[in-house]
Design brief:
Blueprint: H1 9-17, H2 34-55, H3 59-70, H4 72-75, H5 80-86, H6 92-110, H7 114-137, H8 163-177, H9 182-206, H10 211-227, H11 232-251
Helix pairs in contact: 2-10, 6-7, 6-8, 7-8, 7-10, 8-9, 8-10, 9-10
Length: 342
């Protein structure tokens, strides 16, 4: 009699979401093949050609001005609201949080830190290369252009290349790069290309970037993705070190709390233990005060300078107007005893 039930599609989906019992042995890691080297070289040549074309104020700069004067946001105002939200797919903060959450789950499921380490490496390369190019070329955007027909280079701007476009290429392209199978990588590559292209054209529609900024942003992001296999050996060496630190952190013993020493009641000179304080039970002992070292007595500020006698050495004086009669025979510190007759 068979007791096994057939797994539904939903059951298989939840089974794939669970953590794998152990780290997969054969993970498809991209290599720096000859085909990838050719693509990297061609993309780098395209990148340099765009930079030179803008620097010499070629036909590309004139085309930038034509697109700017066309003002696409005025030609199709009905899609302006949607594209204001769509361009968020190219912003660093929201996209990095979403992709890092997905890759964090991938790292947990496959018992490896490679997805997160590769994503961090890609973001570091993006900040270093694109940020340096923005600051170095200093191009102004369409909204801040000063001279019609000029390339607006070296004016203190920071829009060349387009950071939104380069970030969209790297952030969504890293999902295709880290795909487990070639088929999944192919579909994710097409999807990330569509998203990055649409984000770049959205910035042109909104008037925040020249068209040449978008071309250079596409090339900058693609160069980073194509160069990632060169960093795979470094990630392979860093990952065991990072995992070892994490395991040592989890395995370290908790901090032990040293108990306070028990309070021992002090005995008086006669040898008898002091009576318990008022309001305390017989088993509770009053706190023991630390002995204070005898120091040099300090003269109060309100006393005049000069020698002063201690209170115990002064002659007792009956205050004026006291109701009690004076007792000259009473010595300070002793109690008067009644005298009985013989």
């Amino acid at each position: 009699m068979r007791t096994e039930r057939n797994l539904t599609r939903l059951d298989r989906l939840f089974a794939r979401l669970d953590r794998e019992p152990e780290r997969p042995v054969h993970l498809d890691v991209p290599r720096m093949s000859r085909h990838r080297v050719v693509l990297f070289s061609a993309t780098l040549a395209f990148y340099l050609a765009i930079v030179v074309a803008v620097l010499v104020t070629s036909w590309l700069v004139r085309f930038d001005w034509q697109v700017m004067f066309f003002r696409p946001y005025q030609q199709w105002p009905e899609i302006h609201g949607f594209l204001d939200y769509w361009v968020v797919l190219g912003q660093r903060g929201p996209t990095a949080v979403m992709v890092a959450a997905w890759l964090g789950w991938r790292s947990w499921r496959q018992h490896t830190l490679r997805p997160l380490l590769m994503f961090g490496t890609a973001l570091l390369l993006l900040n270093a290369t694109v940020g340096a190019a923005k600051i170095g070329m200093g191009r102004l955007g369409p909204h801040y252009a000063t001279v019609i027909g000029s390339n607006e280079m070296g004016q203190g701007g920071d829009i060349f290349p387009s950071g939104h476009t380069a970030n969209a290429v790297v952030t969504w392209g890293i999902l295709a790069y880290l795909a487990s199978t070639p088929v999944t990588r192919r579909y994710l590559s097409a999807l990330s290309a569509v998203v990055s292209l649409s984000v770049g054209l959205t910035t042109v529609y909104l008037g925040t970037h020249w068209l040449s900024d978008v071309f250079l942003g596409w090339a900058a992001g693609l160069l980073i993705l194509l160069a990632l296999p060169w960093f795979e050996p470094l990630i392979a060496r860093v990952e065991p070190f990072a995992l070892g630190l994490w395991h040592r952190f989890r395995a370290r013993p908790p901090v032990s709390v040293v108990p306070a020493p028990a309070l021992v009641p002090q005995r008086s000179a006669a040898g008898a233990a002091p009576a318990p304080a008022a309001g305390k039970g017989p088993g509770e002992q009053p706190p023991v005060r630390e002995p204070v070292a005898a120091g040099r007595p300090r003269t109060p500020a309100y006393l005049a300078p000069g020698p002063h006698t201690a209170r115990c050495e002064r002659t007792p004086v009956t205050p004026a107007g006291s109701r009690r009669p004076p007792h000259p025979e009473r010595v300070r510190g002793t109690s008067a005893r009644p005298v009985t007759g013989a």
